[in-house]
Amino acid sequence: MRILVVEDERILADAIAEWLRRESFAVDLAYDGGAALERLAVNSYDVVVLDRDLPVVHGDEVCRSIVSSPATARVLMLTAAAAVRDRVAGLAIGADDYLPKPFAFAELSARVHTLMRRNQPAQQPVLERAGIRLDPLRHAVWRDGEPVELANREFAVLVELLRANGAIVSHEELLERVWDEHIDPFTNVVRVTVMKLRKKLGEPPVVQTVTGAGYRVS
């Protein structure tokens, strides 16, 4: 689950990113519209948190670019302008949701979760497979009815494996969806995270390693 935060107020942008990372999202940052378009050209995102009043390229133009592209990213537009006409204008150019500043981070993350579900209409809010039950909104996991405490990356990897519904998820796909753009593509962080996840989920193991292909929950 990968998010692009585009906000020219760096302190606010960094704070949003930190908040969302605590909820197990992979977050990339751009501080102007030009940088946002560069990242959108090379990365796939589930949600773009987009400030409207951006330097270099205006947020409206970034939003239009997203809407006109084959990408399926949802747009949550942020702005200091709270008038109804401003919200209507933002939605008219293709934004999926609109949040005026100042806002509570809890509301922002709730709206992000809602947009994520729109991108995956076939998925249930609570994921279940092989005795595992995962609630993304509550950030909670149970194995055979017993709670399991997971670190953020472990939780995010498990989300991707459960959403695959038994299909194999490759090392590269997990890097793309769970870690941000700064991760070393040759790192062993996926293998280590899966190893820790498997241990915490207990016996019998439910996370399988498929040699040369990736991982799955059987």
Write structural notes for this entry.
This protein is about 40% helix and about 20% strand. It has two domains: about 1-120, Response regulator (Rossmann fold, 3-Layer(aba) Sandwich); about 125-215, Arc Repressor Mutant, subunit A, CATH 1.10.10. The strands form three sheets. It has a five-stranded parallel β-sheet, sandwiched between helices. The relative contact order is 0.12. The longest helix has 15 residues, at about 105-120. The protein is α/β, with parallel strands linked by helices. Keywords: DNA-binding, Phosphoprotein. InterPro entries: CheY-like_superfamily, OmpR/PhoB-type_DNA-bd, Sig_transdc_resp-reg_receiver, WalR-like, WH-like_DNA-bd_sf. This is Response regulator transcription factor.
Can you identify the CATH superfamily of the largest domain?
Response regulator
The secondary-structure class comes to alpha/beta
CATH topology of the largest domain: Rossmann fold
Helix content, binned percent: 40-55%
Spatial separation of the terminal alpha carbons:
21 Å
Strand tally, please?
Answer: 11
Counting copies of identical and different chains, the oligomeric state is single chain
Radius of gyration: 18 Å
What's the overall geometry?
Answer: elongated
Number of domains: 2
Q: What letter string, H or E per element, gives the SSE order?
A: EHEHEHEHEHEEEEHHHEE
Pfam family, one: Trans_reg_C
Organism: Tenggerimyces flavus
Modified residues (4-aspartylphosphate): 51
Keywords: DNA-binding, Phosphoprotein
